[in-house]
Amino acid sequence: MKKLILKSQKSEYQIIIEKGIFKNLNKIIKSYSYQKCVIITDKNIYELYKEDILNLNFEVVIIEPGEKSKTINTYESVINKLLKMNFNREDIIVSLGGGVVGDLSGFIASTILRGVRYIQIPTTLLSQVDSSIGGKVAINSLYGKNLIGSFYHPLEVIIDPEFLITLPKREIKSGMGELIKHAIIKDKNLFDLLNKYKSFNELYENIEEILFISLNIKKEIVEIDEFDKGLRMILNFGHTIGHAIEKSFDEDFISHGEAISFGMIHILELFGKKEISEKLKSLLIKYDIVNNYDYDIKKLYEYIKNDKKILNDIINIVVVDKIGNAHIEKYTLKEFKDMIEV
Ligand code: GLY
Question: Do 158 and 221 fall within a single domain?
Fold first, then answer.
């Protein structure tokens, strides 16, 4: 078992990492005082873990899996279900699922009855290494992803790596992209450690330790810059180009973690960091992340220019000078366009 404490401005909460801990959920939740506990999950998780979920004897709200559920419609429908069961301010929401369930449930928790307590139980590698901690909760708008949201931290984050056993390979790759990103921006030792394993199966033997190191990187960044005004932006390494790659294909064609992995490689190459990019490529190969996608980087500007993070025509680019060291550089859109279109 590994434990971290994240200190946000309004609260502090623990992140527990332990194989099999989900089976003890009842005991953990009993340590809180509450009247009702409602699990929000998606159909996939419900089908896979139905018995465990029903054994908990909590109310359950099930949503459709996938990004299409991060909408104002699903938000309203879940809120209505909760209110119909007389959800009150003493009650607790348990978010059980990947990033979509976590972001939606967290946003519901932050707004229903002006804010109630919620517990994050991330079930994908991506949500275990990234989205379940740090308090960013949101749903999508017609004008882009995560545009309706808030910063709202959970009561606790419970990470059970055993959920990864049933996770599709594509989702493992996606999470590995973000995990490797944490290593390259902040921790050379983690990068070297990830290099020592031959595959994810080998890494899984030490998953508690790896998640602990990776989450600690994010925790330390969030504690310094909770509201994403400066340092936290380094977590966006590879994301400007990565998001553009994602958008250039049909929704869900390429996984988020793969897209940002290729985004990291492109940025390293654009900034002349050939040696780091080669090391990154060979690490990514170990985890089956190989760029066989057909797109033209020179054409990605069309998607980059509408990025909602661009303010007054200035784009923040995360640059890695050496493995474990990243900083932010500011460019005008025109400068960045020239950079990628040469
Ligand atoms: N996923 C990036 C962040 O939490 O800031």
Answer: no
